[in-house]
Design a protein that fits this description.
1 helix; three-stranded antiparallel beta sheet; two-stranded antiparallel ribbon; 54 residues; mainly beta
Length: 54
């Protein structure tokens, strides 16, 4: 199936966000937060540092 997803923190945490890298066009951020722009043009902010997100 080759489906991959990565959590932004422990999956036990309610705030955990799962990222599917196949749909990511580009992203950025800093130590306070990060964002992703998906292939369909939607931008989404994440409450984790860019280091953690990457």
């Amino acid at each position: 199936m080759n489906t991959f997803a990565f959590p932004t923190m422990s999956p036990e945490q309610f705030e955990c966000i799962w990222s599917f890298p196949w749909h990511v066009w580009k992203g950025g951020g800093d130590k306070h937060g990060s964002y992703t722009i998906f292939l369909n043009g939607v931008r989404m902010a994440f409450p984790v540092s860019y280091y953690v997100f990457r």
